[in-house]
Amino acid sequence: MAYLFDTEAISEVLRSRPLPGYLAWLTTVPREEQFTSAVVIGELYKGAFRSSNRERDLRHIKERLLPAVTALPYDVAVARVFGNPILDRIRHRGRESPRMR
Predict the structure, then answer these.
(1) Other CB atoms within 10 Å distance of the CB of residue 80
(2) Which of 3, 57, 63, 74 has the fewest Cβ atoms nearer than 10 Å?
(3) Domain tally, the chain
(4) pTM of the full predicted structure?
């Protein structure tokens, strides 16, 4: 099963003390099934450039994150899916993942 990691999921791995249980679970997910979006990468870069540990955080993105996950592009087709009101209907029906809140 493929996973699309959001900013919070990726940030956890880059923390100085990531949650051991999360790291253990992550090792069970094959590399070819780990994805994130270009938007998430942008959010991480934005945070790194604003960080008091800028160089370290930029290095972590380059050396640890980018080799470990496939970044999917954000294009018009993806924007259309994002803008589809079906996501709002799913959220209102209570089927939202706790991480989506």
Answers:
(1) 9
(2) 63
(3) 1
(4) 0.72
